[in-house]
Amino acid sequence: MISQVSGRKTKLLLSSDEISKRVSQLGREITQDYKDKDLVMIGVLKGAFIFLADLIRHIKLKTEIDFIRVSSYKDAMEAGEIELLTDTSISLKDRDVLLVEDLLDTGGTVDFIRETILSKNPASFKTCTLIKKKKMREDDITVDYFGFEIDDKFIVGYGTDFAEAGRNLPDIFVIEKEDG
Ligand code: IMP
Ligand code: MG
C-alpha cells in the first residue's frame, strides 16, 4: 500500500490491527506487573497521545495520567538538543511511574526525561515505548516494555509525525528515501 505524507512516498509498516493486538498485550502485561502498585502513566507529548489513549484502556488498575513535553527534533528528521517544554503537574513522590513514549530512536529523549522524573523521587520508574529502533544505544538505555522493534527507518502515523503531518494515520508507515 503506497500513499503520501507531505509529498513523500510512504509504505505500510504496521497495520492498525497489528498495533491494537500488541497494545492490548502490553496492557495485560503492565496490569499484571503493577498489581497493588500506585501507578501513574506519563505520556510524552505529542507523539505518545494516541498510544497512551489506547494503552490505558487495557490497564485494569486504578491509574492516573499526566503528560510531559520536550522538544527533541529541530526539523523533520534530524535530532536537535533536548529541552523541557512542559513538566508534569501531579506529585510523583513515592508513585510508581511508567513513562509512555511513541518511539525510541537513540534513546536520548527518554534518558533526559528519566533524569527529570527521578529528581521528583518516585517509588519506581519504568519506560514503555510502542516502537524501538534497533540502532538504539543498548549499552546505557533500557526500556522495560516495547511493542515493536524496527530497523532504522523514519516512520509516521499513529501519533508519530513527519514535520507535524500524519499523526492522524491509523496505521504506521515508513517514509521512503527520496529518489536520486
Ligand atoms: P530519540 O531521543 O533519538 O530516542 O528520539 C525520540 C523522539 O524523536 C521520539 O519521541 C519521536 O517523537 C522522535 N522520533 C524519532 N524517530 C522518529 C521517527 O522515525 N518518526 C517520527 N518521530 C521520530
Ligand atoms: Mg516524541
Polypeptide structure, described:
- The chain is α/β, with parallel strands linked by helices and 180 residues long.
- Helices cover 21% and strands 38% of the residues.
- The strands form two sheets. It has a six-stranded mixed beta sheet with strand order 5-4-3-6-7-8, with helices on both faces. Strands 1-2-10-9 form a four-stranded antiparallel beta sheet.
- α3 (108-118) links the parallel β6 and β7.
- α1 (16-33) crosses α2 (49-56).
- The longest helix is centred in the first third of the chain and has 18 residues, at 16-33.
- It is globular, with a radius of gyration of 16 Å.
- The protein starts with a strand and ends in a 5-residue tail after the last strand.
- Bound molecules: inosinic acid and magnesium ion.
- Inosinic acid is lined by residues 44, 47, 72-73, 79, 101-109, 154-156, 160-161.
Write the layout of secondary structure elements.
Elements lengths: L1 E4 L2 E7 L1 H18 L5 E7 L3 H8 L6 E11 L5 E8 L9 E9 L3 H11 L5 E10 L11 E6 L4 E2 L15 E4 L5
Parallel strand pairs: 3-4, 3-6, 6-7, 7-8
Antiparallel strand pairs: 1-2, 2-10, 4-5, 9-10
Bound molecules: inosinic acid and magnesium ion.
Magnesium ion binds next to loops.
Tally of alpha and pi helices: 3
Overall form = globular
The residue ranges in which pLDDT falls below 50 over 5 or more consecutive positions are none
SSE arrangement, N to C: EEHEHEEEHEEEE
Strand order of the largest sheet: 5-4-3-6-7-8
- Strand proportion, as a percent range, falls in 35-45%
Termini separation: 22 Å
Taking Cα atoms only, what radius of gyration do you get, to the nearest Å?
16 Å
Number of strands: 10
Structural class: alpha/beta
Largest sheet data: 6 strands, mixed
Overall residue-averaged pLDDT value: 91
